[in-house]
Amino acid sequence: MAHGDLMSQAEDVADQFLRVTKHYLPHVARLCLVSTFLEDGVRMWFQWGEQSEYIDSTWSCGRFLANVFVLLNLLVQLGGCLLVLSRNFVQYACFSLFGIIALQTVAYSILWDPKFLMRNLALNGGLLLLLAECRGEARSVFAGVPSLGQQSSPKNLLQLGGRVLLVLMFMTLLHFDLSLISVLQNLVGTALIVLVAVGFKTKLAALTLSVWLLCINFTFNTFWSIPSYKPMHDFLKYDFFQTTSVIGGLLLVVAMGPGGVSMDEKKKEW
Questions:
Q1: pLDDT, tens digit, for every residue of 150-193?
Q2: Are 202 and 262 in contact (CB under 8 A)?
Q3: Spatial CA neighbour of 170 closest among 160, 159, 183, 185
Q4: How much is the pLDDT for 102?
């Protein structure tokens, strides 16, 4: 009984948070989601020479193609972010950002690094949720009109795919040692990511994961405390903004709910 009361109180807190923030939470979520693309686009400008030289030396493609690669990353990422934040042509912006993720996965050999690959997949999950939100807005004009196949609608499937990919971020945070704290973190984290993936108590689980990830981000990815000339500065900065983007995706889950393909939705039919 006590466990049920505690869960009810936690859900009440999450609902209260959503009521208070419902007008600006989606805007904050979108800003967080595109933050890694904004940072990377700006970095392409300030590190143009280094990025171009890296691509040229890695792929032996010549300096011209290397410069084209850097320019493409800069323009597409900054342009896509502006479109997402201004809510114009969001679908096209998302597809272009999907393309940048795929391009960088190959160009920087992320495909062979499980940790970075899972984080990139989690970033794709956030973009899928953004597409779902966009689709919902585009069809809101038909609100109240019944339609067939609601559960398998593109929006619901996008939300399902987005939730499943988002939780991959937390797979990279698991600690494989037997200390008590690590075991507890792994157990709680695994329980929460399973809840988000299957869509059970989704808003509460996603909000809890957002807070947890925010604490981890500001505790371990403190790039501002390291001189900019040290390689660790760029590494932590990259980690910080990728994590912030995943937080944005989780906040979209909090704002939109889990969608039709979820246990929360099924509970309404029971």
A1: 556 888 889 999 999 988 888 777 766 777 877 887 888 888 88
A2: yes
A3: 185
A4: 95
Question: DSSP for 35-100?
Answer: HHHHHHHHHHHHTHHHHHHHHHHHH---HHHHHHHHHHHHHHHHHHHHHHHHTSSHHHHHHHHHHH
**134/88 Cα distance (integer angstroms):** 10
Q: Say how many C-beta atoms besides its own lie within 10 A of residue 90's C-beta.
A: 21
Give the C-alpha separation, 20 to 18, whole Å.
5
Per-residue pLDDT, 143: 44
- pLDDT score recorded for residue 40: 95
pLDDT for the residue 241: 94
- For residue 200 the two structure tokens come to 């059970």
Non-local (6+) Cβ contacts of 239 within 8 A are 221, 223
HEC readout, 91-140 = HHHHHHHHHHHHHHHHHCCHHHCHHHHHHHHHHHHHHHHHHHHHHHHHCH
Q: Which two tokens stand for residue 147?
A: 């339609």
Q: How far apart are CA 179 and CA 132, in angstroms?
A: 40
Q: How far apart are CA 24 and CA 140, in angstroms?
A: 19
- pLDDT of 2: 55
Q: What are the tokens at 155? A: 């929006």
- State CA 106 to chain mean position distance: 20
- Within the chain, which residues score under 50 in pLDDT? 1, 140-149
pLDDT at 224: 94
Instruction: Choose among 218, 214, 117: nearest CA to 171.
Output: 117
